Amino acid sequence: MATAHPQNVHPDDTRFEKEDLSGHRPNGNPTGVDNDSGDTLTRLRTAGSLNISPELFEKLYLSPENRVKGELRKTFGNPTPIALVGFLLSLTPLSCDLMGWRGAGGNGAASTGVFFFFGGVLMIIGSVMEWIVGNTFPFVVFGTFGAFWLSFGGTLVPAFNAYGAYVTDPTVAAQQMGNPGNPAGLQVPAFNASFAFFLVFMGLICSIFLICSLRTNIAFFIIFLTLVCAFGCLAGAYFNLALVYANPTNLAAATRASRCVVAAGAFTFVTSLAGWWIFLAIMLASLDFPIQIPVGDLSTMIKGASDKKPKVSEA
């Protein structure tokens, strides 16, 4: 009797399994395939139909498991870690700057390049890849913060003239000899109040992410919870700076602004700690490391709307 050869079988060829492997053979071997060939076919079928638990999926992709067409998740690597790297290497140093550790300061101006090439580039790449593999929530989150880091970095670059445009006094403007980015614009009340509104609405979108993260994990929830607080503190700092520059004798506003900046640094530092924890968990899970750390999965505790619908039994 001829023996089926493994090289002629594709791992997704379910027809072969049904026609050749389900029936009994005259020699008593129910598969009709020798042991070595049977082991090979088993490995092929396993590799072709590998499934992971909903908890592991949520840990790897920071999103509840969802059904998508095609096999792109098996074709491409997991883009979540690289986006997290961009986020963490931008936010962690910034949090230390805001708190003034070891004499740091300048609201992160020393990390402008990091904001562009780590925070911007890596998070945009991660966002596009999440979109390709069909993970909507991480795609939106990473894209939003990738754009945030590019915008924040651009504000700090003099060539963008973000603050220089607020210098309307010809005498002061003449000191730049026509060059953009007049630093005097940083002390204009209108610039500080305007930038504060950007931070307010970043806090708003993080509030929406916070609600959505209740379907992911506790660590991700902590990230958005602390970011909402951090953006609120930063917005308060810039609103108070606007009051200070409008009235230099307003010492109370100056004190509030300073405290808000430090508080924002503390909140973002907690954000960073939660982010580093998630990054470590994903990398360990990706390598099937013998030691795994929990992230507090919530995807199975808070059921989705589709899970609550009654199942329609098939006839």
Task: Describe what this molecule looks like in 3D.
This protein is mainly α and 315 residues long. Helix content is 62%, strand content 0%. The protein contains twelve helices and no strands. The chain has helices spanning 14-20, 35-48, 54-61, 72-75, 80-99, 112-133, 136-156, 170-174, 189-212, 218-246, 251-286, 305-308. Helix 9 packs antiparallel against helix 10. The chain is elongated. The two termini are 40 Å apart.
Question: Brief overview, please?
Answer:
With 315 residues, the protein is mostly helical. It has helices at residues 14-20, 35-48, 54-61, 72-75, 80-99, 112-133, 136-156, 170-174, 189-212, 218-246, 251-286, 305-308. The longest helix is centred in the C-terminal third of the chain and has 36 residues, at 251-286.
Mean residue pLDDT: 80
- Beta-strand proportion: under 5%
Low-confidence spans: pLDDT under 50, at least 5 residues? Answer: 1-28, 30-34, 40-50
Q: Fraction of residues in helices?
A: 55-70%
Please tally the β strands and state the result: 0
- Helical region count? 12
Main sheet characteristics: none
Span between termini: 40 Å
- How would the global form be characterised? elongated
Order of helices and strands: HHHHHHHHHHHH
Structural class: mainly alpha
Radius of gyration: 27 Å
